[in-house]
Amino acid sequence: MAIGGYNQLSLTCLNTKLDVEAYQFQSARAALYAYLSATKVKTLYVPNYICDSIFPALESLNIEVEFYSINEQLLPEKSLKLIRKSCCKVLLVNYFGLLNKKIKELITSEPELYVIDNSQALFCEHIEGTTSIYSPRKFLGIPDGGLLRTSKHINMPKEFFDASKYTGHLLLRASGYAPEGYTMFLDAEQALESFTPKRMSVISEYLIKCTDIRVIKEKRQRNYELLYTRFNSLNQLQLPIHDQIPLCYPLKLAFKVDQICKQLIDKAIYLPRYWCSKYSGEVGQDMFETTLFLPIDERLDTEQIELIIESVNNMMALK
Ligand SMILES: Cc1ncc(COP(=O)(O)O)c(C=O)c1O
Predict the structure, then answer these.
(1) Which atom in ligand 1 lies closest to the alpha carbon of residue 146?
(2) At the top level of CATH, which class does the domain 213-317 belong to?
(3) Do domains 23-209 and 213-317 have the same CATH topology?
(4) Nearest residue CA, atom 7 of ligand 1?
(5) Domain spanning 23-209 has what CATH number?
(6) How many angstroms does the Cα of residue 120 sit away from the middle of ligand 1?
(7) For 167-197, what is each residue's pLDDT tens digit?
(8) Where are the domains of the chain?
(9) Of 1, 104, 176, 200, whose CB count within 10 A is highest?
(10) Residue 248 to residue 271: CA distance in whole angstroms
(11) Which atom of ligand 1 is nearest to the CA of 275?
(12) Which atom of ligand 1 is closest in space to residue 145's alpha carbon?
């Protein structure tokens, strides 16, 4: 450790580690790339509702992508057991971190066929026998990060991702300057478009060490339950309630939500839209058009959750 000299951020190190058995990369897509390039996978079955960011990595590895349809429960529409087994894997997305139980049921007979995309499910445990990827920066204030759990041996790259230019948005946001940090956030995300695997940055590793995961889990769970209680009867999605620590509360309505999203921005309530993609099937397109992905993260107290509920209710009443 260096002594004296210029000053540093004053954070308390709690020695938090996410998953000691996981290989750590700069992003989930880099983790997927590292796994696929270490295996002989030639074809990846991918749901027709997913974030486009994974496709460049698949293209560069010459992986054949076969889309499969999902049903309204966001699970494969047809049984995937009949697919050609050799050199094939099936990517299952744990949407919003809310499908863990269903995924466990689905994979029981041949777990090794599946890669579970837990990018939206940081707090869902890896299922033995499967391979899984995670994207912790969607849940934590870190600039980069992607985890891979697999029984396959992975040769780790030597180089670390350099996140030193990609932390400004986190500091601005923490200081209460969300709009001012937005372009920096986009720059940081753009830096992750390069999927050649690198090790997760030392900055992310340190920030994770200083994160109180217990508080994050408790608050997410509480906020999710609050939104569930208020919106469940209206929600077109059937969601689980007990023991969930998801990414967000997805509220699927019977009409398009563009207008509500715009009105919420005017109230400084920013919602992501998952996902606008030319590869989406009917269910995916409908999810994109009619779902409000309401935030539940640890920054939000009960009062702010009540504000979200009131704002959404008022806007729906005006429809
Ligand atoms: C389901 C899913 N898979 C993979 C990814 C890629 O994650 P990363 O940005 O960490 O590469 C995302 C990103 O949004 C995602 O939502």
Answers:
(1) 10
(2) alpha beta
(3) no
(4) 28
(5) 3.40.640
(6) 7
(7) 999 999 999 999 999 999 999 999 999 999 9
(8) 23-209, 213-317
(9) 200
(10) 10
(11) 16
(12) 10
- Which DSSP symbol is given to 7? -
- Show the ligand 1 pocket: residues with CB < 6 angstroms: 27-29, 50-51, 53-54, 93, 117, 119-120, 135, 146, 192
Q: CB under 8 Å to 13, separation ≥6 — which residues?
A: 206, 209, 210
- pLDDT of res. 82: 60
Whether this model's pTM surpasses 0.85: yes
Gap from CA of 168 to ligand 1 centroid (Å): 21
- CA–CA gap between residue 26 and residue 10 (Å, rounded): 24
pLDDT for the residue numbered 22: 98
Q: How far is residue 90's CA from residue 47's CA, in Å, rounded to a whole number? A: 9
Whole-angstrom distance, CA of residue 319 vs CA of residue 41: 48
The pick from 49, 119, 275 for probing ligand 1's pocket by mutation, whose C-beta has the most ligand atoms within 8 angstroms, reads 119
pLDDT of residue 229: 97
Task: Point out which residues pair with 249 in neighbouring strands.
Answer: 294
